[in-house]
């Protein structure tokens, strides 16, 4: 493999430039994030007493309920179905670059860094966020 800057995202990692198993692009990622966070918010409202209209001083720990549910969704579904519901709906999955099963620790690390936001918006030339680089994963197209 060369380190040519003209290569498509993911080619340096041995992934195809387009189609299945190519690096997922930004609009798919944003769509999946929207789906997952909306689902997490609905679950937090229904089961955890989260009130999106409460002032932060009144909300207490329920202020973080959607984030907690979001992390649980990620950690539960990435190792079991290959991605969160949003990922799967948008035609993506999370893979371990080392090959094989993603395992349990990668989704935990990836999700905790994802909710910090900053690691998710720092990308490399392969469009992998810092959260994916640290976890050794890549978000790829499944179709």
Automatic annotation (TrEMBL):
<keyword id="KW-1003">Cell membrane</keyword>
<dbReference type="InterPro" id="IPR010432">
    <property type="entry name" value="RDD"/>
</dbReference>
<feature type="transmembrane region" description="Helical">
    <location>
        <begin position="62"/>
        <end position="82"/>
    </location>
</feature>
<feature type="domain" description="RDD">
    <location>
        <begin position="24"/>
        <end position="136"/>
    </location>
</feature>
<dbReference type="InterPro" id="IPR016795">
    <property type="entry name" value="UCP021697"/>
</dbReference>
<feature type="transmembrane region" description="Helical">
    <location>
        <begin position="30"/>
        <end position="50"/>
    </location>
</feature>
<dbReference type="Pfam" id="PF06271">
    <property type="entry name" value="RDD"/>
</dbReference>
<keyword id="KW-1133">Transmembrane helix</keyword>
<keyword id="KW-0812">Transmembrane</keyword>
<protein>
    <submittedName>
        <fullName>RDD family protein</fullName>
    </submittedName>
</protein>
<feature type="transmembrane region" description="Helical">
    <location>
        <begin position="103"/>
        <end position="123"/>
    </location>
</feature>
<keyword id="KW-0472">Membrane</keyword>
<dbReference type="InterPro" id="IPR051791">
    <property type="entry name" value="Pra-immunoreactive"/>
</dbReference>
């Amino acid at each position: 493999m060369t380190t040519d800057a003209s290569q498509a995202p993911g080619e340096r990692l041995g992934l195809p430039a387009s189609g299945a198993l190519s690096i997922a692009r930004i609009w798919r990622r944003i769509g999946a994030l929207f789906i997952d966070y909306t689902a997490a918010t609905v679950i937090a409202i229904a089961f955890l007493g989260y009130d999106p209209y409460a002032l932060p001083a009144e909300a207490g720990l329920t202020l973080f309920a959607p984030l907690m549910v979001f992390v649980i969704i990620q950690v539960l579904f990435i190792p079991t179905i290959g991605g969160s519901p949003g990922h799967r709906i948008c035609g993506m999955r999370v893979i371990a670059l080392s090959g094989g099963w993603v395992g349990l620790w990668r989704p935990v690390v990836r999700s905790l860094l994802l909710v910090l936001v900053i690691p998710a918006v720092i990308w490399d030339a392969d469009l992998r966020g810092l959260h994916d680089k640290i976890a050794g994963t890549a978000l790829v197209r499944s179709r």
